[in-house]
Input
Amino acid sequence: MKIIRTRQRPFLVVIDVFLTVLAWVGLLYLLARGLWPLIDTHDGPRIDASFFDALGTLQIYLWVALLNAVILITWARYQQRKSKSFAQRRLPAPVVDDQGLSKSFKLTGDRLAKLRTPGSMTIHNDQDGDVSHVVTHFFPVDPAQLPPPLAPLEHPLVIRLQAEDDDNREPVSHV
Output
């Protein structure tokens, strides 16, 4: 499971990888330095009180690693919850009906109807933020002035290209 899903810049990825490798090398060095004297002695491997000292050192390393893991997981979960609450704040505003819009901006029925018309317009506000007047930048056309719709072609030319899997299809009947 990936906890962090954001993309990083390549330079930051290189720094992250370098620091991770450095931390692993340091951990292996400390482990080897603590365990090597137990194995490499002139009299052969020693299993005596120093072995238990090494286990104590190893236990300290494991407790530090566990504490680091708890801190990192806690921090990641905190950031995850924080980002979820941030995303909720960025949700779109709830839809307002005509009555709520009229009440909020103190619109009259005429101004609200003008705002509902399509096209570009300039909305002027007064000192309180209410809509003082609306200027539309288009001229409505009477439907009687519109040209007639285009007539369909009498003999349309259709070009049909054969596809790879046309052998399995039934031929199209001509009308």
